[in-house]
Design goal:
The chain is α+β, with helices and mostly antiparallel strands. 39% of the residues lie in helices and 18% in strands. The chain is globular.
Length: 211
Amino acid sequence: MTRTVPVKTYAQDTPGGGAPGLPPDRTQSILEATKQVAGRLKSGGYPFALAGSVAAYAHGVPASLQHDTDFCILREDAQAVTEALEADGIEVRIAPEDWLIKARSHGEEIDLILELAQQPVTRELLDRAETLPVDSVHMPVLSPTDLMGSLLHAFSEHHCDFGSVLPIARTLREKIDWDRLRREHQASPMPDAFLYLLERLDVIERREAMP
């Protein structure tokens, strides 16, 4: 009697475009989703800025992307952006949080952020964004200081993964306004602890050495 052993295979049209028999390229899949959404936002004339880990990647931080892609948009554009993405075949759904819209493209999650660091996304924030290439497509990306500020704000007693943010701080340290971040986060224990860690690691200048 012949026994048939099931073999796990991957479809050719899996996210990321992996070849048959190979797992999908998650980084490329996330980049493709990023480019599709950015292209639709650009063509519609909606102000936006790339945020999160893909923004760090755009700034030159080496990374293997494994999570979603994040875009900051104005709350006043939320309905129009939702309709534009749906017209482009992108699945959009209402999130339980009122500061976020969820979408999905190329099998990857997309977060459309209306509030960053518990503050509404503003035109001033988006105006500070830098236009950078993301896998050959140019798009606005949060400035290094705003990006690091959003990552610091996410630290809490229940979420303090310093290890994931440390490479970003090391790579972008000369582009970040650390004095501004110290002022903004000095009353918050976890962000302040991370800034102290950066001092001890000689990533940034120590406070007592500052004029």
